[in-house]
Amino acid sequence: MIRILGSLEIRQDDDWRPLTAAKPRQLLAALICRSGSAVSVERLLDEVWGEHPPATARQLLHGYVATLRRMLGDTDDVALVTTPSGYELVVSPGGLDSLRFLELVATGGRLLREEQFEHASATFADAIACWRGDGALDGVTATLAVMAERDRLEAALLAAHEGRVEAELGCRRHREILPALDRLVREHPLREEFRRQQMLALYRSGRQADALAAYQDLRRKLVEALGIEPGTPVQQLHREILDGTGSQPAHATPWQLPPDLLYFTGRADELALLSARLTNSGPAPVVAISGPGGIGKSALAIHAAHAVARAFPDGVLYVDLHGATPGLSPLEPQAVLARFFRALGLSAEQIPDNRDEAIALFRSKLAGRRLLVVLDNAVAADQVRSLVPATGESAAIITCREFPAALDSATHLPLSGLSEQDAIGQLTALVGADRVNRESEAAAELVGLCGHLPLAIRIAGARLARRAGWALQTMVDRLTDERHRLDELASENLAVRSSFDVSYSSLADSLDARDLAAARLFRLLGLLDGGDLSLPLAVVLDGRTPAEVDRSIQRLVDGQLLSSTAPGRYALHDLLRLFARELAEQFEDSTDRVAARRRVARWYVATARLAGQLAAPADPRCAGDTTGALSLSGGRQGQQWLEAERPNLLAVARGAAGEPEFAWVTIELATILRNLLDINGLWDDMAELADWSWTAARAVGDRSAEARALNDRGGASIRRRRYDEAARQLHQALAIRTALRDESGQAATVGNLGLVYRHLGRFDQAIGYLENALELRRRLGDESGVVRTLDNLGLVLGDAAQPTRRITCHETALSLVRQLGDQRLEGLVLSNLADAYRAGGSHARAISTAREGLRICREQRHRAGEAEALRALGTTHLALGDRSKADEYLLAALRIDQKLDDPRRPGETRPQAGSETLSQARSSGAAARLQ
Questions:
Q1: Element at 638 (helix H, strand E)
Q2: Is 831 in contact with 850 (CB distance < 8 Å)?
């Protein structure tokens, strides 16, 4: 356990020991001030050493952490844990005296409101007894965090004294409490609540003259020190004493909350967190709701405030701070305080002109009361720091685009887009359930085009609500055109574009060069076709150094113009991307825009090619120049990059397909990515990419690329069991390749035609096509092509009941692929060879071969190949009569198939063991290799 209400002490061996070493003491104080939250190493260095830490500060910090852990020991009360960014002090309520103190103050306040005066007085007395000295964290250097913690605790101590006196007055122990009140008034001569309580105790003790004298003494001191008159509660009590009534003055109960939103839906988890945090027994909870423009921060804050309002009997204060209102300057704290004072019943003469005095008076007015303060659309911590409750049982909700990190006591609640279910729920509330039910698919597409952004859905829904004759599909059609989508998402005084512009303008209108650089990077990001990016891509796009670009990215993340999805990866909301593209077209020179897009295209193609070479060294489709590519080391890293960037690569290919200047990008990416998409079962993507490549090839008159696109489209049709369609596309490709005398291309297409005829059950024709392809491959010296063709020929020979020839083909393919060093292809060949051994009755060889294939495919993260190896093991164990192991392997293969959404496999959503499932699993057979 730790004590801070006095000097900082740690309990060791049933004894309290002060922490005498200055730096560890400062470190522990910094962690205590942020207990329950992770504190970054950078923040801790600043807290311990200030602006000029020594060069060895980080090493010293680690040593101090170790020292503190030894002193704290292994207990359930306190733990100092390491986090990804720094350290966190995890403390139970019994592990820190200040937590127990604050809990007692909160409990005393609740008992006082319930008029349980005896219990309240005892509870406040226990709270006050927690203090061992005049100040918290005595002996600790006064950093900002330490001062804030001291202020918070000392304000709570004053509230505890006020609460105890109020409870004693409720017990009618007026005379008994006077000595304590005299001391409190001497120590805090300008604190009006103590004077009010002293006046009431004196009056009810029969000392009316002394009560009036106390009022005059307070008035004189306030006028001399601050130039103000006593507040309304004290003045009212003074009049009541003069009248002889002596009743308690009533507080004004403000209710400034705007009406709740009728269409509010969803956010169940966020509402639960807000309710729990705002109504807990801790002191002055503050929740900051952050997120980009249009995400629904204000709507959530207002809805949550209405939901918890009953827990705040002394009222609700609300203000729009204008941090997100175009054309309006953010409100100054002094102006907000004046509004709040008027709502609390103060006259203009009673409101201090001095900011510090106004803050002190505001906190005094909140002491002992339970108010909810809603600060909507804040811009910075400085704007709200003086407006949040400092103690007592009041609470605050703040909405802001950037989380005010300087508010150490605030709980952070970041918002993202609505789930599809909640988004459709909001649309339903606006347009009615009948229209949504009639066009459920259009409704889902509509909220998707709105990016699940509440503001966008609200605008689209409002427009539909005013146009009862429109189908939802009409709005979908209007939003589909990206060039005009932001124009459509505007209605009356609401516009998605205007909401985004507030965040962007804060950068673009800045005098800081770093903000201007971030604004330019945001504009350039609009040129990207994907919604996700990495730092290396941003560097290529921007042209500055990685450190400079990273600073700009972090500024955009802080400003909610980018979101951080994973370490080193960032996402740009679809509607923000359109907004950024508009800005780029407006403010960036056309030559610069084209140059930036060209840099990105070259980088993507070169890196994709390098990644493909590393992942599959023998794949001829990945051969070529890799100048300018991202540095990658090894096949695993290459494969990981391809998997991470696949959506962006497809988006780039799609975006470039219709532009002759960039058609080469689509053609190159279609060539490089075909095998990656195939082995991962992404055949819809494979078909679309081939279609885009065909469009690009036709646009620039590249007949060779057109044939390659038709060949790849035929391969995708084979995978999707559209064999007649595949045959037509492959024959078109073959005709072009024959006319071009492209023997390598002919070999690939002829080999694929062999697969088509295999699936059509015309095995003799299939064998003929594959033998012709094999001859062409050997003549061209294409060893990788020879391996794939031999492997495919072996499959057809197995279908044609020629097991010996089949085994020979697969064994020859295995020997060649090992010479090539292509482990990904080797794993697939091993699976087919294992199946051939099983068909020939060599079960032991089949099992050992399949296990080797399984090991390689797992190492290569080749999920489709892993399924084939599992299937070979399952069918072999079934042939051996081991039904239990057969079930295990075959069901594992089925689960992988379902994750890959492989149309060659059974389409059940929940595989179950049994003869029917096993039959389906066996019938799928080994997979052929596209050429």
A1: helix 634-656
A2: yes
Asked if pLDDT for residue 903 goes beyond 50, the answer is: no
Q: Are strands 39-40 and 286-290 parallel, antiparallel or unpaired?
A: unpaired
* pLDDT score recorded for residue 907: 33
Q: In this structure, are 399 and 476 located in the same domain?
A: no
Domain check: are 522 and 664 in the same one? no
Say yes or no: 483 and 524 in one domain. no
Read off the pLDDT of each residue in 290-299 and give the average, rounded to a whole number.
85
Residue 223 lies in a domain: yes
State whether 352 and 340 are in the same domain: yes
What's the pLDDT at 908? 32
Please indicate, yes or no, if residue 48 is contained in any of the structural domains.
yes
DSSP 194-243: HHHHHHHHHHHTT-HHHHHHHHHHHHHHHHHHTS-PPPHHHHHHHHHHHH
Q: What is the pTM of this model?
A: 0.61
Range 789-799 average pLDDT? 91
What's the total number of domains in the chain? 6
Query: 607 and 628 in one domain?
Result: yes
Tokens at residue 900, please? 């890959």
Percent of the chain at pLDDT above 90? 24
Range of the domain at 117: 2-158
What whole-number distance in Å separates Cα of residue 903 and Cα of residue 588?
A: 46
144 and 183 in a single domain? The answer is: no
Same domain, 10 and 150: yes
Q: Tell me the pairing of strands 78-82 and 15-18.
A: unpaired
Candidates 354, 330, 331, 352; CA nearest to 341 is 352
Average pLDDT, the chain: 84
Q: For 81-231, where are the alpha helices, taking DSSP H only?
A: 97-113, 117-129, 144-170, 174-187, 192-204, 208-225
Q: Which phi and psi (to 5°) does residue 490 adopt?
A: -145, 135
Pick 920 or 476 by higher pLDDT: 476
Q: Give residue 552's pLDDT band: very low, low, confident or very high (50, 70, 90).
A: very high
Contact 539, 517 (CB under 8 A): no
pLDDT for the residue 248 = 41
Q: What mean pLDDT is predicted for residues 894-910?
A: 55
CATH number, domain of 307, equals: 3.40.50.300
- In this prediction, residue 64 carries a pLDDT of 84
470 and 363 in a single domain? The answer is no
Round to whole Å and give the CA distance between 562 and 312.
36
Q: Tell me, yes or no, whether 409 lies in a domain.
A: yes
What whole-number distance in Å separates Cα of residue 440 and Cα of residue 458?
Answer: 17
The Cα–Cα gap between 555 and 522 comes to 10
**Any domain includes 424:** yes
Pinpoint the alpha helices (H) of 450-544. 454-465, 472-480, 485-488, 496-508, 513-525, 535-542
For 67-87, write each residue's pLDDT tens digit: 888 887 767 678 888 887 788
Query: Using the 8-state DSSP alphabet, how is residue 863 labeled?
Result: H
The residue among 916, 919, 864 whose CA lies nearest residue 893 is 864
